Please model this.
Amino acid sequence: MTVLAAILLLVIIMDPIGNVPVFLSILKNIPIERRRKVLIRELLIALIVLLFFMFIGRYILQLLQIAESSLGIAGGIMLFIIAINMIFPGNKNMFAHNEKMEPLVVPLAVPMIAGPSAIAAVILMMAQEPDRWKEWVFALIIAWLIAGVTLLSSETLGRKLGERALLAIERLMGILLMLVSVDLIIDGIKQTFNI
Model:
């Protein structure tokens, strides 16, 4: 996997465009002057979580005796489910929270930015090619910056693009994510059966 492919994969998994309406909904009761600080804090927490799993994740896999192929298949299945939800969104909000309280860690940092699929992706990248750790950290930081800038601009994007355009972009990202998820599943099966 190239660094550019890793960046693109992580951006698609983090789905900042698709998260814009959800972030706006979650932050609606927070004073405007406080929203940016909350977003920056949640973005930093998400980055720390992803970096933690990038460097510690493969040791957790070894401790639990989980094969990389299993992680690839599981990650592919998670991505597939997320892609289905992106293409065919329901009315149910998976990330319900207490609107009277300011969100902390959940649901903005985890699982919206640093969700199970993003965690699985960074663990898999590092487990497959640990000697390229500098490239993976670079890819993660660039993807995180793209997601961060997008989410910090969420109010402007929400106004300028409108709900229909955001939904169309999210569905397109969902289709791309579905292709990536199928590829991860196939690679995992190939590794399992040495094909």
Remarks:
- The helical segments are 3-14, 16-27, 32-64, 68-87, 108-113, 116-128, 133-152, 154-193.
- The first helix runs from residue 3 to 14.
- The chain is about 80% helix and 0% strand.
- Residues 3-90+99-193 form one domain.
